[in-house]
Amino acid sequence: MEKPVLDLPLITSSEVGENGLGETKGRRRKEALEEAKKQLWLAGPLIASSLLQKALQLISVMFVGHLDELSLSGASMATSFAGVSGFSLLILILKEK
């Protein structure tokens, strides 16, 4: 009977390398870089959409900033309020459909 995956050790005795702590440094570094590349490839669209959403809010506030201080403070407050409450509620409503 096989052990569940979560009960297996991360480094098995056959992988013990030259330093006694696991695989050799070069092999571990290569595997870590490959894993980082995979994670960045998967996270890339999330990062891009987050940056574009923040850029949209920033550009809106910058345009209002050319008017006067009262308009700038109002736009900043509205953007913050919409980000905290409005967009979250909108996402919840869209997920229910």
TrEMBL record:
<keyword id="KW-0812">Transmembrane</keyword>
<comment type="similarity">
    <text>Belongs to the multi antimicrobial extrusion (MATE) (TC 2.A.66.1) family.</text>
</comment>
<protein>
    <submittedName>
        <fullName>Uncharacterized protein</fullName>
    </submittedName>
</protein>
<dbReference type="GO" id="GO:0016020">
    <property type="term" value="C:membrane"/>
</dbReference>
<dbReference type="GO" id="GO:0015297">
    <property type="term" value="F:antiporter activity"/>
</dbReference>
<feature type="transmembrane region" description="Helical">
    <location>
        <begin position="70"/>
        <end position="94"/>
    </location>
</feature>
<keyword id="KW-0472">Membrane</keyword>
<dbReference type="InterPro" id="IPR002528">
    <property type="entry name" value="MATE_fam"/>
</dbReference>
<dbReference type="GO" id="GO:0042910">
    <property type="term" value="F:xenobiotic transmembrane transporter activity"/>
</dbReference>
<keyword id="KW-1133">Transmembrane helix</keyword>
<dbReference type="Pfam" id="PF01554">
    <property type="entry name" value="MatE"/>
</dbReference>
